[in-house]
Amino acid sequence: MPIATTNPATGQLLKSYGPMSAEQIDAAIDRADVAFRDLHDTTLAQRVQWMNAAADLLEAERDATARMMTTEMGKTYVAAQAEVTKCATACRFYAANAERMLADEPADAGAVKARRAFVRYQPIGPVLAVMPWNFPLWQVMRFAAPALMAGNTGLLKHASNVPQTALYLEELFRRAGFPEGAFTTLLVGSEAVDPILSDPRVRAATLTGSEGAGRSIGQIAGRELKKTVLELGGSDPFVVMPSADLDRAAEVATTARCQNNGQSCIAAKRFIVHTDVFDAFADKFAANMSALRVGDPMDENTDVGPLASERGRDEIHAQVQDAVDHGATVLCGGEKPAGAGWFYPPTVVTDLNPQMRMWSEEVFGPVAGLFRVSSYAEAIEVANGTAFGLGSNAWTTDPQEQERFAVDLDAGSVFINGMTTSYPELPFGGVKNSGYGRELSALGMREFCNTKTVWVGEGAASAGAGAHAE
Ligand code: NAP
I need a labelling partner for 15 at 20 to 30 A (CA). Which of 117, 182, 427, 468 fits? Predict the structure, then answer.
C-alpha cells in the first residue's frame, strides 16, 4: 500500500512519502533502545510533566490536528475534534494515575516466608505499535500514553493512509519534552513489520487492526517469543428486548452504527431484536438512519462522511449485494452513490441468513444487519454466533435480564442500555478472534511491564530457606 494522504471526500492524492530504508529503520530502533535507557534515568514526576505538556499541545492544536485527520481518513471534523480532546484527556489521566498504577504491591510476607515480598512493575523496552487509520490519533494514544508513563519507548508503524497524523504524533511527544527516540514514527509498509519485530532490541508489539494482520503479527511474535496485545475486528451485537425504551434504543443504535462513518471496531453491527418489538424498532431505526446527513466531512452539519478508501466502500457494497442476492431485504440505503469521494448511505438490511456474508463477517461501514429473535436464548445464540467477541450491547429494563446479559454475552465488554465506548478508566479488549490482552486502565499499562516478584528474606543465611529453586 502506498504511504500517502488521499482525501476520501474527493479521491485526490495530496501527498506521498517513500518508505524508510533498512538503515533508517535500524537507526530509529537504536534511538528507541537508547531512549529506553534514558527514560530509566528520569523520574516519574518528569514524565508526568511531559505527558501533561503533550495534553496542553493537543488542546492548543485541536482544530488544525482535526482538519489533518479529516483530510487523511474522512471522519467528520466534529468527530475529529472530539478525538483530539479525548487524547488530551487520556494523557492527563495517565499523568495523574501512573504513580498509583506502577506502585509496588505488597504481598503477605509471612505466607511466603519472607521479611518482605512485593510485586514491582517495570518497563520492558521498545514496543512496536502497528496501528489503524480509523481513530488515527486515539488508537495510538491509548498505547503511547501508558507505555511512555511506564518508561517504555514506542515505535509506531501507522496505517499507510495516515502518514501526516503519524508524523504529528512523533513531533508531539518530542515537543512535549520526551527524549529523542522515546516515540518514533517509522514510515514503512506492512512488509517491514517482520524484520522490525524480529529485531532483538524490540521487546514486544501491540496491534490494532484486522484479524489477518493479527494472525501475521501473532505468528512473528510466537516465533520470536515476544509479548503481544492484539486488538482486532468485531461484529458487536446490539440486543433489544421487549422492556427496552425503544426510542432511546433506536437513537443510540443509529449513533452506535454510524459513528466514525461506520468504521469503528466497537460499532454495533448486528441488531438483534425481540419479535414483540421488532417492527416498531425497525421502523424507528430505519427512519433515524435515513435522516442522517451524508456529505462533506468538514461541514459541521454532516453526520456521515466518506469511507476511508475506495476498497473499503467496494467491500461493504459487495457485502450488501451478496445479502440481497441471497434474499435479504434492504430497509434503507444500499445504493452506491455516483460522483467523487467514497460515500455510502446509512443502510439497514434484514431477513439475513447464515449463507450471507453479513451474517458472519465484520461490516466496516454504515450498514446495519437486523435480526429477528423470539426469546432471550435465541438472542444470546445469535449474539454469540460469530467468531468475534469485542464489545456488546443489550437493551432491557429488567434487572434480572441485565444480569444474565452481563454473564452470557461472550465479549470483552457488555454495555447495558448504552453504547459501547472506550474510557481511560476501563479496560478495553476482546475475546475469540477479536484478539487478546487489554488496553487502557491499569491493566493496559501493565501489559508492557515486567511484573516482577521481589522476595526479601531475613539475611543471606535465611534468604532461600524453604524456597524452591526454579
Ligand atoms: P489492517 O489492514 O489490519 O491495518 C491495520 C494496521 O496493520 C496498518 O498499520 C496496516 O498497515 C498493518 N497491517 C496490515 N496487514 C498487516 C500484516 N499482514 N502484517 C503486519 N501489519 C499489517 O486493518 P484496517 O482494515 O486498516 O482497519 C480496520 C480493522 O481494524 C477492522 O477489522 C477493525 O475492526 C479493526 N480495529 C480494531 C480495533 C480494536 O480496538 N479492536 C480498533 C480499530 C480497528 P498498512 O496500512 O500499511 O497496510
Answer: 182
Mutate to test the pocket of ligand 1, among 3, 20, 130 (most ligand atoms within 8 A of CB): 130
Full residue range of the structural domain in which residue 41 is found: 3-232+430-454
Q: What is the pLDDT of residue 1?
A: 86
Of 231, 361, 362, 447, which is the active-site residue?
A: 231
For ligand 1, atom 40, which residue shows the shortest CA distance? 231
Domain match, 321 and 447 both: no
Q: Which residues contact 24 (CB under 8 A, 6 or more apart)?
A: none
Which atom of ligand 1 is least distant from the CA of 233?
34
Residue closest via CA to ligand 1's atom 14 equals 213
Work out whether strand 227-231 and strand 435-436 pair parallel, antiparallel, or are unpaired: antiparallel
CA–CA separation, 89 and 62 (whole Å): 12
CA distance linking residue 219 with residue 403, whole number of Å: 37
Beta carbons of 346 and 366 less than 8 angstroms apart: yes
Told to judge if 231 belongs to the known catalytic residues of this protein, a careful annotator would answer yes
Q: Are residues 182 and 110 in the same domain?
A: yes
State the DSSP code for 261. G
Distance CA 185, CA 101 (A): 27
Question: Which residues, 6 or more positions from 349, have their beta carbon under 8 angstroms from its beta carbon?
Answer: 320, 323, 324, 328, 329, 330, 331, 334, 358, 367, 368, 369, 370
Contacts of 185 (CB under 8 A, 6+ apart): 156, 158, 166, 167, 169, 170
Q: Domain holding 448: CATH number? A: 3.40.605.10
Query: pTM for this one?
Result: 0.96
Q: Report the DSSP beta bridge partners of residue 252.
A: none
Q: Are strands 116-123 and 105-106 parallel, antiparallel or unpaired?
A: antiparallel
Number of domains within the chain? 2
Sheet order of strands, 183-185 included: 183-185, 153-157, 126-130, 204-208, 227-231, 435-436
Q: Among positive and negative, which fits the CA dihedral 52, 54, 56, 62? A: negative
265 is catalytic: yes
Cα 27 from Cα 321, distance rounded (Å) = 48
Residues 108-126: b if buried by 16+ CB within 10 A, e if exposed: eeeeeebeebbeebebbbb
Regions of the chain where pLDDT drops below 50:
462-470
Of 294, 144, 297, the C-alpha closest to 206 is 144
pLDDT score at 464 = 43
In a domain, 195, yes or no: yes
Q: Which residue has the least CA distance to atom 46 on ligand 1?
A: 159
